[in-house]
Structures are given as C-alpha cells and as structure tokens.
Amino acid sequence: MALKASSGDNRTRSTVFLCIVIGMCCFFYILGAWQKSGFGKGDSIALEVTKRTDCTVLPNLSFDTHHSKATSGGSSSDLVSPAKKFKPCADRYTDYTPCQDQNRAMKFPRENMNYRERHCPAQKENLHCLIPPPKGYVAPFPWPKSRDYVPFANCPYKSLTVEKAIQNWVQYEGNVFRFPGGGTQFPQGADKYIDQLASVIPIANGTVRTALDTGCGVASWGAYLLKRNVLAMSFAPRDSHEAQVQFALERGVPAVIGVLGTIKLPYPSRAFDMAHCSRCLIPWGANDGMYMMEVDRVLRPGGYWVLSGPPINWKVNYKGWQRTKKDLEAEQNRIEEIADLLCWEKVSEKGEMAIWRKRMNTESCPSRQEESTVQMCESTNPDDVWYKKMKACVTPLPDVKDESEVAGGAIKPFPARLNAVPPRIANGLIPGVSSQAFQKDNKMWKKHVKAYSSVNKYLLTGRYRNIMDMNAGLGGFAAAIESPKSWVMNVVPTIAKMPTLGAVYERGLIGIYHDWCEAFSTYPRTYDLIHANGLFTLYKNKCSMEDILLEMDRILRPEGAVIIRDDVDVLTKVNSLALGMRWNTKMVDHEDGPLVREKILYAVKQYWVGGNQTAVA
Prior knowledge:
By secondary structure, the chain is of the alpha/beta class. It is built from 19 helices and 17 strands. The strands form 3 sheets. Strands 6-5-4-7-8-10-9 form a 7-stranded mixed sheet, sandwiched between helices. Pfam families: Methyltransf_29.
C-alpha cells in the first residue's frame, strides 16, 4: 500500500511540476514579447503613458478657438512635469524672423540682393524665449473670407495702404485690412488678369497645378488662382514693403520670405507648371541670364513663364515707367536672347504681358544641339540646392528617346496626379522607393489621418487653413488631407535620407527644402497646424530639440495645433519641454495598439499676448 501511495504522490508532483514549467514558459514568452516591443526597459514614465492613454478621448485638451485675451487653463498632461518654463521674449521680437533679421541683413553686401537672403544667427545667439503675439491678436477669419480680410491687430502695418493705394493692394477699414485683389499690374483685380492668362495657358483643365510667383507682394495672384485649383508658391523679401509675406499668410495663401539673389531657390528641378513675375523688379537680363536660368531649372518641361510689366511693350509705356526707350529696348532684347538660349518658345505678347513656354525636351531644341556656346551646369544633381551658389548655366534635362517624349516623364492633370505614381518613382530616381512602396505609403497615411481626425475632430473641417508637414517624405500626409479648405507646406529636411521633394511636386503639391537646425523663412504665427513625423529622431545629435520646438512655437498661431509622431522615448522628452512652452499636450498610442513603440503627441498652443513685464529682454 505504501508503495502505491508513493507512486501516486510522484505522479501528482510530476503533474504539478509540468504545469509550473508550462506556466513559466508562457510567462517568459509574454514577457519577452513585451520587452521586444520596447516597453520592458524599465521606463516608468513611458509605461504610465501607455497605461493611461485613451486613443479616442483627450481629457481637457481643447482644439476650439476661443478668441480670448485671457490665458487658457493649464496642461492636460498629468504624468510629466515641465523640464523648464520658457518666459516670453520682449515685445520688440513680436515679428522676429531670425534668418531675415533687418539689423543683421545690413551687414551683408547689397550686390545681387545678398543682404536680403538667409543670414541666420549663430546657435549661441538663438533666443530661448517665446515670441509674443501682439496685443489684441485674434484667430484669422476662416477661408475664403480670409482672402479678403485680415484683422488689423494681427499685422498692424499701414505703410502698404499708402504706398500702393492706387494699385489696389490693400485698404485699411476700421479694425481690418481689406484686400480688393489688385496688384501693380492688375489694378482692376487678379481675376481679370488670370482670365487673360487662361486665354493662352491651360489653367482650367488641371494641366497647370503648381505655380511660382517671384516677388509676390501680398500674393493676390496666388490667392485668386486657388479657386481655379492652382497652388502657387509665392515669395518676396523682407524689405521696405513691410509684412507683404506676413499679409499673404494671414490671408491663408502659401508664401515664404525669399529672393532671387546669389543662392539657388530651395525647390527641386522640374517642379512648377508655371512661373510668374508681375513687375517683380528682378533684373532678368543681368548676370548672363542667371535668374532666368534658375527659373528654367525649376520649371517643368512644357511649363510657362509669364512676365508682365517693364520692359514688355516698352514703346507705349516708357514715359510712365520713367525710363528711356534705349534702356528698355536693350532690356527686352536681352530677355529675348536668353529665352532663345534656353529654347523657350514665345507663345504670346499682348499689352504688357508676355508668355514663354519651355520645350518638352532637349531633342525638340535644335539650337541646343548645335550651339557649343550654351554653358551647361556640371552638377549631376540639379536638386542639390541648399545654400548652393547660383550659376549662369543651363540645367540639363533627362534624356528622351524621341521628340514626342516629355523629359523626366509625363504628368497627369490634377487631381489625377495626386495619387498617381510620380515619374521620379516610376523611373527609379528615388533609391529604395518603388511604385508598390509608394502605394503602401499612401494607404498608411490615409490610416494615420483617419486616426488623427478621430482625436482632433477639426482636422478636416477647414479650421486649420495653413498646415505644415515638417518631414513630408512622399507627401502622403498632405495627399490624405488634400482639400480646397486647406493647403500644406511640405518640408523635406536637407538631411533626409531620400530626395523626395521632386515627387511631392509631381503629385500636384508644394513644398520646400529646409534644415530644421535653422529658423524657417516665415513670420511668427503663420501656421494653424504643424505635423512632424519622425523629425526629432531624424535630428537626434544634429541640433537641439529645444531649439526646434521653440521654432515650432514661433511659427504656430495661438490656439494652433501640433501632431508629433515619433518614438515613445523621444516624445517623452518633447512633451516635457512642450509643457514649459504653454502647450497643452496629450500622448496617445499608435493606431495598432500600445505595444508599438511609436506614439503620437497632440498639442494645442495656449492663447496669450505680449505686454508681460517678466519678458526676457
């Protein structure tokens, strides 16, 4: 009997032991999977964020616009304390543009507008305070009312209402500026002017989608093109015409501070369907035609260049322009010579407007084949432009098999081109990005945007007019939210792994190259929403996270929103700094669940204005 009892006990112990072993195996398997996901590193803060996050509800984080002069409530984050609290800068910095600072600009040569180009402060000179909005600042009017009206308190500069009074640029009425849609070359309004263009250029059918306006004033040309589904990138310098680019952005029109000077434009080759100069004061015939050659670089094969104003039709207008016949004739002759050298075809000259068209390829330009005097650019990468000196040379076009082929590949009319595979990808010009990868990226961003809009329900409503994507990639975010209610500035960092900005333009979107270790070429408070995907990981060990966040705060409007997607450890640090910048924040899980290391940080900038006695001098 004793032997039988002992045998039964052994079987029981074996069964228990086996259960324990199986249980431990299951436990360590789950633990291993958890650690592999990145959450087993002992980061208690990240773990608490994961535990407490609700992907659909953000307690106390309001995306509403209040137009309030009172400071809104405290941060909604209950997990992280601010790393530091940033004080307001002095009120004199209200419209501070670090890389186009007027005092610094005067130290540089005036030749070829060098002093109006980007001249950024050394890192040790960066401000570590918050740029204050002016007293009385309110949210801009919604589009399309914003096209015609801007609150005076947001841009309190009346000089253009006097200087450009007879040209119908802008008028001051009570507590708002009104923009009648006029310009130096179209005092009767931009609509009639664009009608004249449309009689020659195929604007209505989607062939022309992206445009470049050089010396844009208050961007009325770009503003009125928008209703024709044409997206214009406008630029003008920060000069004596105070706030012209600021007015453009307050109106809800794409624009940056910029100038044709000594360095190349921050856009890829073959980007724009149309380029435009309306009395922009650029000396097109100077420097061996260098500026026209730069326009040729960024103009798409088959694209159009519009020049209105001096010296076009000089025989009739020379007295009004207060210049001699000889001077104006020589200028127009020189422009014509350079256009011939570039193999542009003049398709129209009527009144004070002339229009040229760029050839589709080099094969259709016999003179280019014959003339050895044409100086071709030696660079093998025409998109390598950041701080690169402009040269008087012609950018070669991609080779074609015959005269009927479009150099670089034909592009569909808009909106079909938005989701079509861009020619740069189809032709294998972006390493590692296939047509299948492009389609997969499109699908992913539609999924991301759906998740974003479930949290910030204003995302797709038009509440955010001016939107920036700080690390745009293939433009998937912009494509997923594309709407006449908003536009996106797609920024491709100069340190990005892939040269994708050309493909972004081939989708009918606009954007710019930029290095986020420096300030962006815009005024404060010019964007309603900022999106940043993997940006802080990209710039890790390149420059200060604090400097990038302060720049984001500078260009973000009060009550504007931020969406940052990055690794959880990175976002924890970002969140800590953001709380000290008067941002209300909340971190949420990835759409695929809490085991994914990538998280999303949502933020809203609190409303506040200048006049604080505790400001940093």
